[in-house]
Design a protein that fits this description.
The chain is α/β, with parallel strands linked by helices. It is built from eight helices and nine strands. Strands 5-6-7-3-8-9 form a six-stranded mixed sheet, with helices on both faces. Strands 2-1-4 form a three-stranded antiparallel sheet, covered by helices on one side. The structure holds adenosine-5'-diphosphate and magnesium ion (MG). The site of adenosine-5'-diphosphate (ADP) has 10 residues, from helix 1.
Length: 255
Amino acid sequence: MDMNPVDIAVHDLVVNFGQVRSVLTGVDLAVRRGEFVALIGASGCGKTTLLNVIAGLVPAASGTVTVAGSGPAAGRADICYVLARDALLPWRTVMGNVEYGLELSGVGREERARRAATYIEKVGLSAARDLYPSRLSQGMRQRASLARAFAVDRSLYLMDEPFSALDSQTKLVLHDQLLGLWEKSGATVVFVTHDIGEAITLADRVLVMSKKGTGVVDEIRVDLARPRSAEALQADAHYHDLYRRTWTSLRASAQ
Ligand SMILES: Nc1ncnc2c1ncn2[C@@H]1O[C@H](COP(=O)(O)OP(=O)(O)O)[C@@H](O)[C@H]1O
Ligand SMILES: [Mg+2]
């Protein structure tokens, strides 16, 4: 991983909202290809803004941002953005929703159906494939969102607190499913969360952002073996060491 090329390079980034208000100042970030990075920090410290800059949705006032060798731009075909509220289309079934992303990418009908069914199976939703989102629990909806996101096979996933609305038991299931999908994909992931356990369970590195909007102030390298099991980690002493270390750092970052 340490030898992989840098996929996202942010240097001395400044983002302003309005005339004077700086939301981010002097932010640096480097994420390697295939790396899973978690961003954690106090509410309002600019996590979503940073993702939006990488996604090309918010402009930098100054500094440089490079994503897979070029400047950020909205609607890039190599990036998938997954949000807290799943964006399932209510008038389409689970199958229809997972096929939707493939339709937009121009994948033919048969291949679409085959891929959609495969990814729906990977997230354990085969029995629900013909249901509409209104019939699904929040956890099932996010599973369908994950299936849709990974069926399109992007090289970069930006995820903004995708599991924040879920109870802790359901989260563990989703963590395992996300890890299963990601580990085979080779994709780079930048995952925003305020859940320390989630960050450690998923990521190669946890980056702690300062409350003041000055970006990453600490890095916790998560040297837990892969493949990981979210449930097994609950009984792993080193997981709890990393948890405490991150907790201490997060508390210091909020001063
Ligand atoms: N469109 C906007 N216009 C003005 N201020 C904004 C806008 N979006 C976010 N902010 C402000 O920028 C700061 C960072 O927000 P955000 O990136 O959403 O933080 P986080 O995701 O870490 O909670 C906050 O103070 C927020 O109020
Ligand atoms: Mg946010």
